[in-house]
Amino acid sequence: MRFSRAFLPVLKESPADAQIVSHKLMLQAGLVRQTAAGIYAWLPLGFRVLQKIEQIVREEQDRAGAQEMLMPTLQSAELWRTSGRYDAYGPEMLRIKDRHDREMLYGPTNEEMITAIFRDEVKSYRELPRTLYHIQWKFRDEVRPRFGVMRGREFLMKDAYSFDLDEAGARQSYYTQMLAYLRTFQRMGIKAVPMKADSGPIGGDLSHEFIVLAPTGESEVFYDAAYDTFDWNQPDLRYGDEAGLQGLFDQVNSTYAATDETHDEARWGDVADDRKRTGRGIEVGHIFYFGDKYSESMGLKVSGSDGQMVTPMMGSYGVGVSRLVGAIIEASHDEAGIIWPEAVAPWKVGIVTMRADDEPTAAAAESLYADLQSAGIDVLYDDRNERGGVKLGTMDLIGLPWQVIVGPRGIANGVVELKNRATGEREELNVDAAMARLTA
Amino acid sequence: MRFSRAFLPVLKESPADAQIVSHKLMLQAGLVRQTAAGIYAWLPLGFRVLQKIEQIVREEQDRAGAQEMLMPTLQSAELWRTSGRYDAYGPEMLRIKDRHDREMLYGPTNEEMITAIFRDEVKSYRELPRTLYHIQWKFRDEVRPRFGVMRGREFLMKDAYSFDLDEAGARQSYYTQMLAYLRTFQRMGIKAVPMKADSGPIGGDLSHEFIVLAPTGESEVFYDAAYDTFDWNQPDLRYGDEAGLQGLFDQVNSTYAATDETHDEARWGDVADDRKRTGRGIEVGHIFYFGDKYSESMGLKVSGSDGQMVTPMMGSYGVGVSRLVGAIIEASHDEAGIIWPEAVAPWKVGIVTMRADDEPTAAAAESLYADLQSAGIDVLYDDRNERGGVKLGTMDLIGLPWQVIVGPRGIANGVVELKNRATGEREELNVDAAMARLTA
């Protein structure tokens, strides 16, 4: 993408009305614009990041055997009356009447709908287990929306739902999603620690939040340093390996991590002092086992292998896809701007010409741009006729992982400068070496 | 995907309550389920098709230089009051009040919002032309939703908006989108003919509908047989080539095609009799130039190269993404079920074992399944322990382009049967030859 033809509105000043750094940076770098309270339009830069995050979530769900579908945003009130939640849900539910005065709502979540769909199609134990998911916009009518996309009203969520014949099966589905989540966040280049969450009326140990560590986080967190080094992609841990998944769960459960809400001073005391880590964090995912709560209320039963009717046991698994954009920025930025992990960066490489009006400089940049594109690299080429310093500042602000700085003096010597946004390291290289480095 | 583990609910009987064939087939083959009047959940099979169509639309928009973003589903009434459309729009607009009694609406289209966003960011002629698009769910509160996703209430649409400094530029943007549309539909394997549409109060020749030919279509159509053979991917026609795009437009404008609404008997009389084609069709896209209608009412002005303020000229360009799923089925099916064009098929290949309980048959099918997957082919493996005839019927119903039929007798001789869904041709081949054919 050429900057001169792109729709990338960058603000000169940091907006004064945003309270947290991710919101400031998302406005300043032109990721989003607010169109109504707590409702945002995603401009091309923000949309690219949102789409990369969504695609990682999708691929890791597919890899874990979950099947994608898509439920609508609007739901009938009738459906929610069946579970009893229509009246129980507070004013955060956006209630709507259509032209025929039928009561509807903008879905804040989909337990009722997925359970009803599954109920109407699945009749036999042979058709279980199944985990279904979708990635769809939701609405929660927050009384005071704030912090940009971190607590907006219209937000993008991945929600998955598992259906099993018994609790043992449901535990395996839960472990499977736990592993999928650990891999999802690791792949995004962020540290998200699973923390035992309040499991509500059902009790038990099957409720975890995934918390991204960021100094500005909403919760205080306490965790074992072991989480700093876990690699969740160990090749000997496979989906479908029941003992392995149980082992993963036991490992997570026995390695301390908690938010202030579930913090247990006694267990914390057992963690060696040199392994104690504290900080703040932002919730980006929540997995939850709720047994037969919705299958019971929505009337989902299947015939078991012995001919008796069985009520399936369910869990739900949420990832805040749009929230992640903000959370990643909270976790990864500096005074100059955003620092995107490569996996979610809108473009991997930004090319900056220090003098767009210098013919050899522009020619070298053009040729590098063409070569990187041919090599399949996502590249933004800042070909604008602006001062070099302004363009470098913009590149730092929008946070692409690599900058290639092309200037008249360097080009006279056949070299460009390669800058790593995260470390700030700059290196002079000849053009071929820069290409080799960026396409390695 | 293994059928035995998939969520692919196929109905034995054709549903009696659906009036048109695409709706019947979408229910029977398990593409969608209605969750409220005119609102559908997309089950995995339908979602895969929807996503393939969406991706083709996206890639062809990108190729034409349009930039993707994403606007929210809910909009403020205030925005629509600025253009005057809040009061003008009828009961098809779903009007909503939030918890603070603020008036909102579920967007049926996005002219106001994109114009406001563009207005707030773009100040200079240097930042034009631009074409922006998004693919988002819309809502139109149809009084009698029917025909499944063809006239649903919540529907997925791609809408693009172009901004130019003058009408000459806007014409080029219009031609560019016209070519993108021709390429988009051609790539989906359907014939969509551009037909001059009523251009409303602005007049002029810049409004076209794209009509998929299908005997069950809503409109009567009249067109020149030349459209049966046009190839819109001719390599010498490039985006940015002004004369070439003008030539394309002239060619379309001089080759007769019209719906009953705009049919011109005099011009039709000039078409040679042996080139006259009539039939019925379904609208799947509409492109439209509206000049300064929204830039004027929303207050969008930029400074021109001479320092004077200029009101940009705009066009909008819609594709009915979810509607296309139904339209393609209307255009491509037989008594046995759907016949997917390969580009939008949920899977390219279906493997059917005629006897899942016969060990050599199952082993051969498993190995073919693994090999096709390794080769990157989308494949559905019907490994269910059902009668062969039932499984073949299901494959015909869901309409995958290729079926590989694996039976005990064939496997004893080292052969499988390859069936082309569209032509019905069946051929016995050894396994390697079948692989070679499917991965060619």
TrEMBL record, chains A, B:
According to UniProt, the reaction catalysed is: tRNA(Pro) + L-proline + ATP = L-prolyl-tRNA(Pro) + AMP + diphosphate
Any GO BP annotation: prolyl-tRNA aminoacylation
* Places the protein is found: Cytoplasm
Q: What is its main location?
A: cytoplasm
GO CC annotation: cytosol
Domain of life of the native organism: Bacteria
Limits of the Aminoacyl-transfer RNA synthetases class-II family profile domain? 38-341
Q: Which InterPro entries match?
A: aa-tRNA-synt_IIb, aa-tRNA-synth_II, aa-tRNA-synth_II/BPL/LPL, Anticodon-bd, Anticodon-bd_dom_sf, Pro-tRNA-ligase_IIa, Pro-tRNA-synth_IIa_bac-type, Pro-tRNA_synthetase
Q: Which Pfam families match?
A: HGTP_anticodon, tRNA-synt_2b
| Assembly description | Homodimer.
So what family is this one in? Belongs to the class-II aminoacyl-tRNA synthetase family. ProS type 2 subfamily.
Task: Report the function annotation for this chain.
Answer: Catalyzes the attachment of proline to tRNA(Pro) in a two-step reaction: proline is first activated by ATP to form Pro-AMP and then transferred to the acceptor end of tRNA(Pro).
Tell me what this protein is called.
Proline--tRNA ligase
